[in-house]
Amino acid sequence: MRLPFLTFLVLLGYAAFLFLAFLFAARIFTKRFSRFWQPCFYLCSLALVALMAVLPLTNRRGRMNDDFANNAIMFLPLATACLVLPFVAFKKPQRYFALGAVSLSIVAFFFYARSLTLWLSYGGCATLPTRFFHQLVRGDKDSFVKDTRFKVWVMGTALTPEGHMTGFTKLRASDCVEVTIEDESMSSPSEAENEMGKKIRRASRVVERGLKVDLTEHPDGERAVLLFDTDTRAEIVLWFKGTRSLHIIESTSLAHALACEKLIQRGYRMDPQGYVLASGQ
């Protein structure tokens, strides 16, 4: 059994134990103890509201981390306590009001958490509505809005499954489409040429293929525009003769990959906000 599932079972068992404990207390203790249980309910409610306000903020960019996990573990017991304590602390009219207030606050929390996650994911996507307009109204499934800009998201190095060292730069367009630029190093120029041939053969469709002759510093080379996985992923692969590197631009959108290639083909730099500018701009 996986660890997340075991963790869920433990938390569920803990919540069930709290639920039964509070019901047992409601049976045993008389009404004179309501003065004790009512402050407990209010304190637990305040703690739950504070936790619900902070919890989504600790989940940085949608990624799990220790702060988020620790706060998430506290959520279930507090929510259980706030749902069970009204049975002990209040009579029927007030009890239903308290249960309704807690239930509505939990529902509002999930809406808030989801909205915050969407805002963190898409808040910087200024041209996303225009892209949706082109897709829904004009029927253009792979559109590139003219004012779209690319921003550097992640940079680093990695090893490919074949053991080749590759440097990558992940860009994010202002309509939330991601583009990855890779420089994959081989052991020799012949290996780089063979690897390009393999990519072409693995492609589900070859959109363009030919010599690359428009860059003066590299008088000749080969360029291929490829679609993979039934046209859901696009790659522009470039190899210059005499070099042992493959230059790859990958995206789920062919239009964005082509626009990125045009932007960076003669070199690029970044402005203070991290947006990519062509050399000379």
Verbal overview:
The protein has helices spanning 3-28, 34-54, 66-89, 92-122, 128-136, 189-202, 254-264, and strands at residues 150-159, 165-173, 178-185, 205-211, 221-228, 233-240, 245-251, 268-270, 276-278. With 281 residues, the protein is an alpha+beta fold. The chain folds into 2 domains: 3-122; 147-278, 3-Layer(aba) Sandwich (Protein Transport Mog1p, Chain A). A 7-stranded antiparallel beta sheet has the order 1-2-3-7-6-5-4. Strand 1 and strand 2 form a beta hairpin. The longest helix is centred in the middle third of the chain and has 31 residues, at 92-122.
CATH class of the largest domain: Alpha Beta
Radius of gyration: 28 Å
Number of strands: 9
| Total count of domains | 2
Task: Give the structural class.
Answer: alpha+beta
CATH architecture of the largest domain: 3-Layer(aba) Sandwich
How confident overall, as mean pLDDT? 76
Low-confidence stretches: none
Shape: elongated
Report, as a whole number of angstroms, the end-to-end distance: 56 Å
Write the layout of secondary structure elements.
Layout: H1 3-28, H2 34-54, H3 66-89, H4 92-122, H5 128-136, E1 150-159, E2 165-173, E3 178-185, H6 189-202, E4 205-211, E5 221-228, E6 233-240, E7 245-251, H7 254-264, E8 268-270, E9 276-278
Antiparallel strand pairs: 1-2, 2-3, 3-7, 4-5, 5-6, 6-7, 8-9
Summary keywords:
281 residues, alpha+beta, Protein Transport Mog1p, Chain A, 2 domains, seven-stranded antiparallel β-sheet, two-stranded antiparallel ribbon, 7 helices, 9 strands
